[in-house]
Amino acid sequence: MKQEHESETRERLARLWSEAESSVQAYVFSAVTGFHHAEDVVQQVALTVARRFDEYDEARPFVAWALWLAKSRIIDHYRKQASERRVFSDVVLDQIADVMAQQQPERSSKKAALDHCVGKLPEKSRKLLELRYLEDASVESVAETIHSTGGAVRVMLFRIREILANCIRTQLAQEARDL
Question: What CATH code is assigned to 121-179?
Fold first, then answer.
């Protein structure tokens, strides 16, 4: 019986986190400088959400609770990085969290559309996106890696972003028609 309850709790946590994760990521990435620092903070938020899930009040929206925990992790991050200047005040972090909570349903469908569209790209295009945006490599560094020029990389990235934007618009329009 207890094992069954724990399994249900884990499933509920996983479902709620998967719905809120894109909002938490957007919130953290807007407040923390540096891709890898922001990723680390998002992981800390996920751990905190899992550890403290028994404290979650189901009368409140889960995303708002997760964003509240994210704010604490962001503050902790900047305390640890004392030499780094904090970009936002607590008031601004609260305002950003409110906006993220309100936009969460739309952001989830856009994230799903982006994931779908990136998956449709050729391997070379996905690699370019990975180098530039996930590994935060400069255009010049990407050009060196793929044995090209900075100008050519800029053009390729522009075209890839255009393809993704069109694909996402089409995907979201299709979802709206299916509703």
Answer: 1.10.10.10
